[in-house]
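Reference record
================
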Amino acid sequence: MDLQQPTYLDLFCGAGGLGIGLEQVGFKGLASVDEDKNSTETLKTYSNHEVINASVSEFIAEIENGKRKYPNLDLLAGGPPCQGFCSINPTRHENDPRNSLVDAFLHVADLLQPKAILIENVTGLLSLAKGFAITKIEHRLRALGYNVSYKVLQAAHYGVPQSRWRLFVVGFKSENFSFPSPSHLAHVTPNFIRGKELTFACPSHTLFTNYLEKTSVWESISDLPDLKNGGGSTISKYDKKSKTDYQLARRSLSKSLLNHQTKTLQPVNMKRVEALPLQGMNWTDLPIELMPKNLQRMQKKYKSGVGAKTRFQRLKKDGLFSTIVTSPDPYWGAFIHPTQDRVISVREAARAQSFDDDIKFLGPLNSQYRQIGNAVPPLLAAAVAKQLLEVI
């Protein structure tokens, strides 16, 4: 290893999506910390640095008692668990105890005084407590001597085949930071507070630009074997050759097909899937007797013009994946395979997030899906990391 490589410490690392992006551009990991056992076991299978299975409070105690030292740290990175902030959570509030994990992250920053800080989170953080949460983070970082920038980036703008908005907060001791401009054409409208202000405008072709086309669902998964509902296995074989550059890049280091296994849908959900044979169909296309009761009431009251159209949606080959969440429940998003009567497999979810195929997710199936859904897409992480590296 080059001793001059900039170093990073990764808190709330999960299965390592953020760290993968950092290392792709040249950062050297010192340690990654997470209290989820399955996530750290996954990360240990491919990490070249220490992986610590512990809570952040346990990790802080070891720093404070001198057991762990990280002098001259270049970057403290992490995504404090977002459930307390997330706007999908109907019970969120500013006193949610999970919000204190952001305070814990900032306490580590105070203890270690790295050159730079990188926080990744959901856009719901912007509206939590009427904007108080993001203002508090900004003030705390400024009090620690950092210049602060934050922006919401769309993963599809950086080659990820998924519509995924994520907030990035960056603090630097010296230089001001510029976020990476989009590289891919993907027209996704922000649907959250301050969306227009904090995002890049949707790129479009002009005589003076050279954007790449977005990576579609089919460009990312069409080389994977067919599966039945609940089918697949932890280790199997590819039965098709790579058909796109994206597939080739994901498969380049993998000799076996890992985690191509799918969640079993219960009979009522299978009937719903089978009743939606065409790409792009969603809950509004279901026969009334197959609609969940709450959606029946919604349709009766508001007709078809209300409700997330991604519920029970069958993915479109030429479209993007819906935001990958911690379980591919068709009620919560577009997770039905474009041509097969099932939800997407663990490996297909990983492809949607831009994880390479050689990464084997460990633990029960529901944990594998959760590890992927909680991760930062490595391609998005790499785009941000490249800008961080230039400034450092």
About this structure: The longest helix spans residues 378-391. The chain has a mean pLDDT of 92. Residues 236 and 257 are 5 Å apart (CA to CA). The first strand starts at residue 7 and ends at 11.
